[in-house]
Design a protein that fits this description.
- The complex is a heterodimer.
- By secondary structure, chain A is α/β, with parallel strands linked by helices.
- In chain A, 40% of the residues lie in helices and 21% in strands.
- Chain A has a five-stranded mixed β-sheet. Chain A has a five-stranded mixed β-sheet with strand order 8-7-6-9-10, with helices on both faces.
- In chain A, a hairpin with a 5-residue loop joins strand 7 (109-114) and strand 8.
- In chain A, helix 3 (134-143) packs parallel to helix 5 (169-181), helix 4 (148-156) packs across helix 6 and helix 4 (148-156) packs across helix 7.
- By secondary structure, chain B is α/β, with parallel strands linked by helices.
- In chain B, helix 2 (44-49) links the parallel strand 1 and strand 2 (53-55).
- The chains are: A alpha/beta, B alpha/beta.
- The interface between A and B is medium-sized, with 17 and 18 residues.
């Protein structure tokens, strides 16, 4: 008799994430890969790899839920669920005390307020603009010639952060470049950029009301500079789960578990 | 595929004929009758009673938007230096003035006079000034003070004086006199139109609702453009009869109505059916909206106080009132129409309608327990519409509604 397993896939603009759960909601494996063009090929390859690692065949997956921007193009899914619902479900599973989830992904940032049952009471997403997203940080790290992985740590070294007034990615980049041209230290420009992203995201979170406990998910949660700036500006402790990038995929897998057991 | 989910009204052909006739008629030889460009909130009854033909640049803008021809006209206005942040009705209108060869129907016929009433926004003043300068025609600005709390007697007296000044202006520029008898008759017809429109909207309290938002938006054209005419009254009688039949036979506007929603703000003309069909995919119907209710104010009739009646009806339109008033209006509609959720269009074009939406959203949810969603777009400028981002928000919102059921 085949054992039922449950798959959650999150196809974002920059990365693809997948989480595999067993019948007892236990995590079997998870993975993150660059999305490449469109994301669906990367997603199929990632799922195949995870299945191989666990010595499973596709037939043993009872149910698959897909989320993220590429969700409509993933043929193997039984159902697609929005990122809002998936991030909320994943975050609440990891920590039932969570009432606010902030997710900063590649091209979207979003804030969700949950009730004590983990249901989404309200949510807000960034407007049609890359400011306050992972893409913003990537562009700025490139402008400062710093590897993205070290960008947050660099910002933390700053003693005198500059003020970046533009919230537009394009204008913020030219603002950062003019600071550098005037001889401002790299870490001070980096810190200014991190503060700008934090205030932008907190403005979004204020729309739904920033209630403790606050969890930060998405790839940008790996950036210590953003976490520190968010915590300082909001006076809140910011919880970052292990492997924050996969929280949406975890939520999708949990949806799959609920749907697939019936 | 898309059209299949949309249940077409039998009166659609009649509506099309009526509006086509309007746009044809304004181009025919007018035998000396003057033609005015007016804002959607101008007291058109007075103009009709004086034999002035009224055309509506805002309706023309909506028409260009729905035909997806507004963007090129907006670009024509932007090329002349008008900011892309300016209202897209204004840009569409100005673009059609500057480059009529690009404009549907060659633009609107040249005006003899202009009447702008600022009860809907302040943009109309500068927009109409630009049109006045372009054509070299006189402009009258009818000023209706913003109502923060109650419509005070001194404000009423002021608006009445404004109306009297407007009548003198029209008499002076056209050489025509206002007959009170004709005005009373026009007001009667306008009230009849408004009454029918209110009754049609109220029929959507039925389950399932006989109409969805696109029906309301398409069918609002005569209430704006032809209010106070026999043609509009006749059309709305027929529409009402058809909507009543739908209610009687339990026919809904969408195949299956699971969720009842309220819409706030101007329609997204360039994605009219596609956008509202995103909601139909989740069995959600917009049973009521705040926008098409903007033309449901009857003018109190009565010999002596007619001017006071007109002043009150036009000065108290919801866009000229406080956020508090508008929140209460939404709360009332949510209760009356038994609504599960509301969607507010954060309309880049329409600042007075969109400013304060986050505060209103919070307030309305606190007052009713009903959740809301804010969608960013623009009524005419399709460049401000990001389909994927919009769909993601709609999906997330419908999932939260589903969890509540």
């Amino acid at each position: 008799m085949t054992k039922p397993y449950f798959l959650g896939v999150d196809i974002g603009s920059l990365t693809v994430k997948a989480v595999l759960l067993d019948a007892g909601q236990r995590l079997l494996t998870r993975g993150v890969v660059p999305a490449g063009y469109g994301g669906q090929e990367a997603a199929e390859a990632l799922v195949a790899r995870l299945l191989r690692e666990c010595s499973l065949t596709p037939d043993e997956i009872a149910y698959t839920v897909v989320t993220g921007y590429g969700r409509v193009r993933f043929a193997a899914a039984d159902e697609e669920v929005s990122e809002i619902s998936c991030h909320a479900r994943g975050a609440f599973y990891l920590c039932p005390a969570v009432r606010t989830v902030i997710d900063i992904g590649g091209q979207d940032s979003k804030a969700m307020r949950l009730d004590a049952q983990g249901r989404v009471v309200d949510f807000a997403m960034n407007d049609k603009c890359a400011a306050g997203t992972g893409r913003f940080l990537e562009v700025m790290a490139a402008a400062l010639d710093v590897p993205i992985e070290q960008f947050g740590a660099l910002a933390l070294q700053s003693k005198h952060p500059v003020t970046i007034s533009s919230t537009c990615t394009v204008f913020a980049e030219s603002e950062a470049i003019s600071h550098i041209a005037r001889g401002v230290a790299k870490q001070d420009v980096a810190a200014g950029l991190h503060q700008a992203i934090a205030s932008r995201v907190l403005g979004l979170a204020a729309r739904v009301g920033l209630e403790a406990e606050v969890m930060l998910t998405g790839g940008v949660a790996l950036n210590v500079g953003v976490v520190a700036a968010l915590s300082r500006q909001s006076n809140q402790r910011i919880t970052v789960p292990p492997d924050p990038q996969t929280v949406g995929a975890l939520g999708a897998a949990l949806y799959a578990w609920h749907k697939g057991r019936r | 595929m898309v059209e299949k989910r949309y249940k077409k009204l039998k009166t659609a052909a009649e509506l099309q004929r009526l509006m086509q006739w309007h746009y044809t008629r304004i181009r025919l030889p007018r035998l000396g009758r003057p033609l005015a460009w007016v804002t959607s909130g101008a007291p058109v009854e007075i103009l009709r009673a004086m034999g002035v033909i009224a055309v509506y640049p805002e309706n023309y803008g909506a028409l260009c938007g729905a035909r997806r021809e507004a963007v090129s006209l907006c670009e024509a206005a932007e090329a002349q230096g008008y900011s892309p942040d300016l209202c897209s009705y204004a840009r569409t209108s100005l673009g059609s003035v500057f480059q009529s060869e690009r404009a549907p129907m060659g633009g609107l016929p040249q005006p003899d006079l202009l009447i702008a009433c600022n009860n809907i926004c302040g943009t109309v003043i500068k927009w109409y000034e630009a049109v006045a300068a372009h054509y070299g025609v006189p402009l009258f600005i009818l000023d209706t003070p913003f109502i923060h709390g109650a419509f005070e007697p001194h404000a009423l007296a002021y608006v009445v004086a404004q109306l009297e000044a407007m009548i003198r202006f029209v008499e002076r520029t056209t050489g025509r006199r206002l007959s009170m008898k004709r005005l009373e008759r026009t007001v009667r017809l306008a009230n009849e139109t408004v009454q029918l429109w209110s009754e049609i909207r109220a029929l959507c309290k039925a389950r399932p609702s006989p109409l969805n938002a696109p029906d309301l938006f398409v069918n609002m054209a005569p209430i704006v453009v032809l209010r106070g005419t026999e043609g509009a009254v006749r059309f709305y009688r027929h529409l009402k009869a058809e909507v009543e039949m739908r209610v009687k036979n339990g026919i809904g506007a969408i195949p299956e109505e699971k969720y009842r929603l309220l819409w706030d703000n101007i329609a997204i003309w360039h994605h009219l059916y596609r956008f509202y069909n995103y909601f139909v995919d989740y069995d959600a119907c917009f049973v009521v909206d705040t926008y098409t209710g903007g033309w449901s104010q009857e003018i109190p009739e009565g010999q002596s106080a007619l001017m006071e009646g007109i002043a009150t009806a036009y000065a108290t339109v919801f866009l000229n009132q406080s956020l508090e008033y508008r929140s209460r209006l939404m709360e009332r509609l949510i209760r009356e129409y038994d609504v599960d959720g509301f969607v507010m269009h954060c309309n880049r074009s329409c600042k007075p309608y969109s400013l304060g939406q986050y505060a209103m959203k919070r307030r309305v949810t606190e007052g009713t327990g009903v959740p809301g969603l804010i969608i960013e777009s623009d009524m005419c400028d399709a460049r401000a519409f990001a389909a994927e981002a919009v769909k993601t928000r709609i999906q997330a919102f419908m999932e939260t509604l589903a969890e509540r059921k």
